[in-house]
Structures are given as structure tokens and as C-alpha cells.
Amino acid sequence: MSKNEALREYFLEHAKEITEEWYNTIEENDPASIYAIRTPEVVERLKKQNYDFHHFFTQIFVKTEEEWAETFDEWASEIAADQNHLNTPSHYVIREFMRVRMLYLKYLKTFVKETEHDITQEDMDNWNELVITGFDTAILMFVEGANRNSKELLKAKEDIIQQLSAPVIALDDKRALLPLIGEIDSERAGVILENTLHNCSRIGISQLYIDLSGVATIDTLVAHQISNLIQSLQLLGIKPMISGMRPEIAQTAIQLGIAFDDVTIKSSLANAMEEK
Fold this sequence. Notes:
Helix content: 55-70%
Radius of gyration: 31 Å
Oligomer: single chain
Strand order of the largest sheet: 1-2-3-4-5
């Protein structure tokens, strides 16, 4: 057995001990951190993740840098996708990587004292460098993966918000309702136009009630987008009907020269739905 193989075997033999020493020295009170959670399930999972880390990380002593990075990425990707770690501020996770690194350097010194192998200063320098650069790479892998996963989660949430900002609600097989609520800026107006046309085509309706009673004001760009929506619906063979238009919105439309001559307008949604 080579020195490097013996070193890896030593770390694996002491993996459980290292994990327990690491966990028992955690000082964390921030409830936003996974390291502050004391429920048995989370604690056991956290310990297992740390224990598995030793299996993957110690291959750095027996594999090339490229081979190790490819193998270790499996562990790093799992941790970066773990919801509890994603919810934990990154600097806490980096801190724990650094604490585990200190344990590795400590156990490395113990190995040198206890081993029967003839260890040179060059061996020590090489191992110290492997541990330090390996942990740096591990931290970078985690941060990159967590950042990537956070962006994907944010994008998914944004998609849901966009869908909710323009909900086309099917009333029956021919009619649907688009209730617009809150402030509408140019970006949201664009989303409303795109999502509404897509959903109306998907549902296959022939009439759409556009209720504006929840919208207080609109600007020039938004007014034009609503006008574009109405025209696009008509081109698709869908009859739009507007309800709940406030005086402020009506005045804006008049000032902009936007006419709704060929669109049925009702004072309230109830009145609009009475008309077939």
C-alpha cells in the first residue's frame, strides 16, 4: 500500500470520528441555518452528508485532480441542491467547510505521527497543498451549484407569479375570465398579453371577460398593451368584453386616442356576464 493509499485509508477509518467531532463543535444559533436545527431527522441527515463527504473527498489522495473533481462533483451537486443548505446563508456553509478543513490538517499530523511509513517533508507539503486546494475547490463547487439552483428556483417562482398575474379562468367551454388586479407596469402588461393569448388558445374559448375593477391607474404603455390584447383576441376569433373600467383609466384611453368602439364595455363584471 502506497503512502497516499494509507493516508486515505486512515481518514476513512476515522471518518465517523471526524464527523462527530465536527458536529459536536458546531456553534450556531441562527434559525436560518441548517446547523442550528436540532430535529433528529435533520441532524442525522447532516451527519450522513458530512460522513459521505469523507468518502468522496479523500479520493483526492489517490486520483488525479481531474478524476477527483469529476467524482467529488457528485457529492457537491447533492449538497448544493439540498433545500436546507439552500436556505442557509452561504457564509455559514463556507465556515463549516473551513472547520472541517482544520480537522483534516489536524488528523493529517496525527497520521504522520502514527504511521509506519517513512514520511518526508515533501510528502507533508504535498498533502497539505492537496487538502487546502481540495477544500477551496469543494467550496467553489458548492457555491456555484447553490447559485445555479437558487436561480432555477427563483425562475420557477417568477414563472408562477407571472402565471398568477394573468390568470385566465375558464367559466365554461366557451367563456373565460381575466381578472386584472393591482398595479400594472409595462413588464407585467407584456406578460399579460403573452399569457392571455396563449391560455385562451389552449382553452379554446370564444369569449373573454377582461375585468379592470381591481386596477386603479394605467400609463401610456399599459393602455396600448391592453388595446393590443383586445385586437389580438379579435384576430383569434375571441370576443373580448371589458368590465369595471374606472374613470381614471377611461380618461387615459381617451387622451391617448384609444377607442373601444368595437368592444362591449360594462360597468361591472356581473353586468358583463348577464350579456350572452
